[in-house]
Amino acid sequence: MKWVNHVAIAGSAAAVWRPELVPVAVLGSTAPDWMEWGLQLLGRRVKHRTVTHYVSSWAFGLAFGLLVWDWHYALTAFAAGGLSHVLCDALTVQGVPLGWWSDRRFHLFGGRFRTGQMGEYWFAGGFVLVCFGVAMLTRHWGGEYSPFFFDWAEYYKEGLIDAAEWKANRFRWL
Ligand SMILES: [Zn+2]
Fold this sequence. Notes:
This protein is mainly alpha-helical. The chain has helices at residues 3-17, 22-41, 55-67, 74-89, 118-140, 152-157, 163-169, and strands at 96-97, 105-106. Zinc ion binds at residues 32-33, 49, 53, 85, 89.
């Protein structure tokens, strides 16, 4: 899957969960690929979508972050980003390995997508829309954070901006 789609998916999921973690999640969502370059720089030959694309290691990282140790959710966000990457790659024909014990490729939903074709863009676009919808709902149903919006009315109440600024910006949400 293309980076732009990996980034869109992990970024919008993080935006709904914890907006401040978007950069970490985005970093994680591209990690399985840039880690391959890193290993190559260290002189190791890595085939694409092998060691850095094990579903099991990213799932383990996520579980570790959630259950054992983390620092401001950074590990969790990074591992969740990486897991989203390998799961999205599992939607493509090439698939990903589950772990070091197996050469078999793991596919989700039959692995129909071909990297770079429209399917993955539709998928990523749909995912972003769902996140956007969730963000709207949590905002209207009493959520105190608003990942996709700047809450101008709230800033106004807190005296951060003056009335003119609020008037100018109250319909500008993005
Ligand atoms: Zn990849």
